[in-house]
Structure formats: structure tokens, C-alpha cells
Specification:
about 220 residues, alpha+beta, Glutaredoxin, 5-stranded mixed β-sheet, globular, disordered N terminus
Length: about 220
């Protein structure tokens, strides 16, 4: 499985380089959607924010995870990738709390990947606090540390903000990407798979770079 993902990452890298040198369709309203109103970003003004929207119960988010992590680790310069768990209901709020608890504990990647594997490969739904507590324990976080962080004001604030961001970004399906608080990119008939999703995001980044150059 890892070899397949590594090959796909290599293909995505080649395609990303290709789109910078060759014309390709990138049509607003088809390959990407403008948000109803721009949403403030968390990056400096000269840095393009790419924000992944996900849910641990989403099978497509699970298959995208190794790709998105490698993308995040590979971006440099004027691009930064962040993540936001989508909150549409109570179970998604619970899963958002998993992500932010891990983030506060500086265990984001370990827990993020393990949570996807728990739901999609280990048949562990992570639907109750006790199930999640045991899950964190298996991943090296002791019960006391988990409880303090899980119920902390910091995590509460992050989860509430994710719920508000879900409304602001208004994704129709997952996974989705928000580019610089202005455009939403999702898989659809014109963006049919993870490869095309990556290309569509990169093309929006190129558009934003072109806009910046035209301002000078």
C-alpha cells in the first residue's frame, strides 16, 4: 500500500510541475468555487493558505491522507497548508475534538493517521469518550493528560471555531480544500479524483500568484 502511495505522490509531483509550464483548464464555477464571502486566513498576507477540510469517518479523506500530508510537508515559500475538521453533527464534533486534542498535545500527525486507520481498518468507530480515551492511550497519551486536554478550554474553543468555519466554507462534500479563504476545491465531474483535486488546487495557487504579480 505504501509503495502505491509513494508512486502516486511522484505522479502528483510531476503533474504539479507540468501544470506550471503548460496551459490547462481551470474555470471558476467548474474546477473551483468562489466562497460566498472571503474568510480571514491564519497565514501572513504574503503566504497563500491551503486548508484541507476532512472528517475521520470519510473514506475519501482516508485515502487522501498520505497524499495531503506529503503535500503539506512539501510546500515551501509562499504556501502553507492547514487542516480543519468539518463539524456537521455530534459525531463529527467528537472527531474534531480528537484532532484538536492531538494538536494541543503536539501529536497531530501520529493521532491524525491513527484515527483514520482506527475507523477504516480496525472497525473502531471512536464514538464515545471512553473509546477515544483508550485509543489515545494506545498511542502513547496517558489517561490524565488526555482527560485534561480533552476537556480544556483551549480544545473547546478550537472545536467551536471549526463549527463556525464549516459554515463559512460551506463544503458540499469531503474532502475539500479552501485556498486563501477565497476558493473551495472539491471533487466533481470536472475534478474526478485525488490527482485532479491536487492539480485544481495548484492551479488556483497559480491564479493567486498571477494576481499578486499584476498588482505591481
Amino acid at each position: 500500500m505504501r509503495i502505491v502511495f509513494q508512486a502516486l505522490i511522484l505522479l502528483l509531483t510531476c503533474l504539479s510541475l507540468t501544470v506550471t509550464g503548460q496551459p490547462r483548464d481551470s474555470v471558476e464555477g467548474i474546477h473551483y468555487q468562489p466562497l460566498g464571502r472571503p474568510v480571514p486566513t491564519e497565514t501572513p498576507e504574503d503566504v497563500i493558505e491551503v486548508r484541507e477540510l476532512f472528517w475521520y469517518g470519510c473514506a475519501e479523506c482516508f485515502t487522501l491522507e498520505p497524499i495531503s500530508t506529503d503535500y503539506r510537508d512539501g510546500v515551501r515559500g509562499d504556501v502553507r497548508m492547514l487542516r480543519t475538521p468539518v463539524v456537521w453533527n455530534e459525531i463529527m464534533e467528537m472527531h474534531a475534538r480528537i484532532y484538536y486534542t492531538a494538536l494541543v498535545l503536539n501529536a497531530e500527525d501520529q493521532i491524525h493517521q491513527a484515527a483514520f486507520h482506527a475507523l477504516h481498518e480496525e472497525n473502531n468507530p471512536l464514538r464515545t469518550e471512553r473509546e477515544i480515551q483508550v485509543f489515545f492511550s494506545k498511542n502513547g497519551i496517558d489517561e490524565e493528560t488526555f482527560n485534561e486536554t480533552w476537556h480544556s478550554d483551549e480544545v473547546d474553543t478550537m472545536v467551536k471555531r471549526a463549527a463556525l468555519q464549516t459554515t463559512d466554507y460551506a463544503p458540499n462534500k469531503l474532502p475539500a480544500f479552501i485556498v486563501n479563504g477565497r476558493y473551495r476545491v472539491e471533487e466533481n465531474a470536472a475534478v474526478p479524483d485525488h490527482i485532479e483535486l491536487n492539480i485544481a488546487v495548484n492551479l488556483v495557487i497559480l491564479r493567486l500568484r498571477d494576481e499578486r504579480r499584476s498588482d505591481f
